Fold these 3 entries.
Entry 1:
Amino acid sequence: MKYTSFAIALIFFGYLNGVQGKTYYVDVNAASGGNGNSWKRAFNNLEDALTAVKNGKGSSGDQIWIAKGTYKPTSPTQPNLATFNLPGNVLILGGFKGTESSVLERGICDPNKTILSGDLLDNDGANIKSDNAYHVLTADNVQNVLLNCFSVKNGHAAGTDLGQVSGPPDRRLVSIDYTNAAGAGLLVRHQSNITLSQVNFSYNSVDSSQATIRTNPALGNPAGASGGAAIAAIDENTTVTVIGSSFENNTCGGFGCNGGALNAMLESSFKVFLSQFKNNSADRNGGAIRGKDAHDLEVYASSFENNIITGGSIGDESGGAIGAINSNIKVESSYFKQNASSFTAGGGAIFFHSTFDDSEPYVLNVGNSTFENNSGGYIGGGAINISANNINPATKAVISNNTLSNNVAIGVGGAIYADIVP
């Protein structure tokens, strides 16, 4: 924990040192009519503060301080489309009591004090999610955004999407015009750059049943762009950095849904440090993290426990913790325990696959990590499955200085299965 706090402090105060802008205050219990200039005159909703930063063009590095409480986005038209639209060049901090005059007075961050929720009508307890927000947060073409000390929960991305898929044989996702079937907690698009520190994502969900982007009729038309119940990153040069955060009980359901917590598509990237992934699930690929035609998935000093794949009708439902197709993966000093693929597939913890040669080489690099009690199915690889159909000759896997124990597979390779990838 002390290393986590130290790393977060470095990032956090690195942002603060460069900030010269204005601070806006938000308190859900404040009286209406506030101008956000102090705790006594605080905005009583987050949207007013986000709008104030946007109207100031966000060029000076403004801050938003948010007091404890639960905050929900609103929409004047369709409730499902309500979302907190994040501006650029802003530091957004939660966990305040509502009396502090400096960030140091906030003390140790407790993400559960300030909650950003998609349960717009407070009826999730009755298992009614059809009226929840598709995306609790949205970052669209914004840079230099830092969120610190929040819980993000109860987003439910169950809408439609629209995009283009290439023809056979590849049937590759080419573009996404819009999506309401990905990124229930946070949707990040169009070259956005966002950092999350000490942010907990829980009970966010995706349902792909209404998604219209479908990839392969021969496999029953599984969803092609649905997933990332906590965070979905889309488009080239979009990067999400996650530090000291947790992802728990996020689910990606519906035929072909990918990425129980995180989903990277169309050359986007995730960089994950000192974070925890527990009890997340997806139907097809990547119970916790999935990348398809992504740029980089980097994971450092993080843990994955009991993340699972729930589908099985296609036969390739793999990667209980991490699943990547035509994407680079780097995992360093991390821990994988009791993650599982479907019984039909493999890669109980990690699945690295190249479906075709798109002229780019891909690299799997796993080092100094521990794998125990993970399980794979008939395709093999209780801990790691490395496989390909038609690959670039420079694609490779480097597995070094790891500890593997008590991993099992129904098929070959109780610990590791590798076919033609060198």
Entry 2:
Amino acid sequence: MADKNMADSFDCIVVGGGGAGLAAAYSAACLGARVALLERCAQPGGTTGIAVGSFTAAGTRWQSRDGIEDNPADHAEDVALFADPQIEARNNEPLRRYFLEHAADTLHWLQEELGLNYVGPSPEPPNRCPRMHNVVPGAKAYVARFQLALQRRGVTIITDAEVTRLVFENDRVTGVELKQRGATRQLRACQAVILATGDYANNPNMIARYKGNEFREIEGINPHALGLGHELAEEVGAKLVNMDITYGPELRLVASSKKPFQQWLPASGFASNVLGWFAERMPGWMVNRFIKRLLVTWQHPEESLFKDGAILVNARGERFVNELSWPQREIAVARQPGKVAYLLLNGRLCQEYSAWPKFISTAPDIAYAYVDDYLRLRPDVSLRGEQLEPLCRKRGLDAERLQATLDQFNRHARDSTEDPF
């Protein structure tokens, strides 16, 4: 995308076409700037394009509609409860306060400027009141609506464009050098270059540098999250801070080969507006069904599963880690063949995790996913059977070796012997 005869000079160049980059490019264009948006992949979207699309804010019009009184100061107190105390102690308080004080205005801006529709607010503990707003039909709506809006504003969108360095002259960044389809060129920024690239969840060297070498084999959800913007900034003298503070690691289900349900729904146009109108009037049970479908795709299995006796085995049918040890458990999974493990529940656990208060995964106080939900919604990763051998055949596992693994674990559990892991 982009005309080969396009200009080489812009007021503002935005590097990265995910949600942040799209919003930055649109804001700059609204202020009258000539803007170029550079995206390394074939299409804009980034991690936003595969996200659920929730937006947490205090003092929104949706809260007012539901009679919820809320404010950014209370929100700030609740946000501080999410992280461990040692991580919370490193928080940038002025920056967080700025974000939270502008969150509701940003949400209203997204609705007014792009015509986006939201359902909610929904509870999201430890928030004291419902603050989570979900865009309809999902985060791909941000990408689709922003792209249309950028085209209307005359923004130049250049895809398959990898920025290889920032042009640095007279103690300031004056442009970028990019590579596109084997050709290298420079673009000049008269006013600003904005780095809005992704995180480094799939850059093993950066993971080893900031998290430790033992984490380097762990992969993120987005294969294109390589931390390239961080590297560009550091090359021209930027100081990177808090790079060791990351979310996770967590166990995740193998991604479905099918397009997620919400990705089939319209993200723009008349059909999307009709869907948004209906979503705002959707009964609670139907909203829960929609969110439950997202749960079985993105959410991690609950820690209580392992405390209650679920075990992990690799493709050889062998245990390889103490299932109760985090993050050693996640590190060990990343070292297994294909970086794949199998979660085994016996009959007792299947029964216990088929109804409240025990569940496989959750979005707290909104929806809970149980054994039957996974069997129904994710048959590609979930199997149930009375006999071990047929299950092993379907998954290509060695039934005899897995049986020996289970016998050893059961002896350990029955006789209270020391776990070899």
Entry 3:
Amino acid sequence: MNVMKKLIFVLLLLGFRVSAQSDTLKLTLKQAEDDFFKENLQLVAAKLGISEGRAYELQAGLRPNPSLYFEHMPYNTQNKELGGLKKNNAEQIIQFQYLVQVAQKRQKAISLAQANTEQAENSFRELIRNLQYQLHATFYDLYFTNQALVVYEQEISTLQQTLNAYQEQFNRGNVPLKDLARLKAYLVSLNTEKQSLIQQKFDDERDLGYLLGSKKQYTIEPVVESVFTNVDFNKLTISDLINIASENRFDLKGALTQRKIEERNLEFQMANKKPDLTFQMTYDRNGSFVQNYLGLGVSMNLPVFNKNQGNIQAAQIRIQEADKLQESYQLKVEKDVQNAFYKARQADTVAKSIDSKFSDDFSKLIAGVLDNYRKQNITVVEFIDFFDSYKQTILQYNQLQNDRVSAFENLNFTVGKAILN
């Protein structure tokens, strides 16, 4: 019976460990991007906007429906008889009308709808660019936040062990209270800073989970094997980057497409100043000078006062507006590319100026400081100063790497293409 209880306990413990492990999702950037393109709800909604535009294209191509009018006299007031369909004492009128659009209005409406669909596609691609940049930025920010947390956890663990030993010595009366108080105060400071990082980690996990369209609750652990290892800024020029951006920035393409939309709208408004024709066929059984009258007719509005002047003028102004916005977007893209290039190159230069073995060497140094403190070769003030310097230096080194990655991702985002990888 005792053996069975132990077996059940072990199985429960194993189940708990498996469950705990399943609560952490290890994810590479490639895996995150795959989930992003499959599950992101904003992309799904934006893609439906393209389908909506194609539906408007279909609607614009439909011809107007004909209209049918029927009139019957139910009662003859002169003969005081009910009117029937087969009697000569009743009146029936049937009219058939059909609107014929002139000046290629239907074709121009289709062309305008197609340009709007193209704009929806530009908006979709631009949304991908923005969300993908957010995904990369959040992914790496979470990764480097986790790296910083490792530093805090190591420092807190080491300091806690030191503090426990120091407390024991204090209880024996071997060390002063002021030194013990300083160690405790520094430990509180480290825990407070760590708590702030944990809050940032939670925010990053929330944002990353939202971008991935995940409805499950788990801890996301970014896995980074190598980050921008083969980057040579000597092979990049600002003019080439601007050309790449002109081809891949869909907000800039959106400005060009908006110009196209306004041009096609002007063509449509110019066509609308020409009146359409309505053809009509009328059958009148007893209301004319002859029975069973059959007549054909055509009608149109006379463009005397309203020649669609206001809409035409507005369309012309919107073209001028679109031209200025296009120039503004082009200038903004050029300035953005220039700024992103300089920032990325500067961040790369600073990050590469630090020896890659710096972190390991500094860790060995602080280990020696810790050993000297335990041997009481240095004071508690010197120990805390060294310890804090170690923390600040490692965190700054970590931040430099984060800044470098962020600057590279920003340059990729600015040109609209992953030129750095």
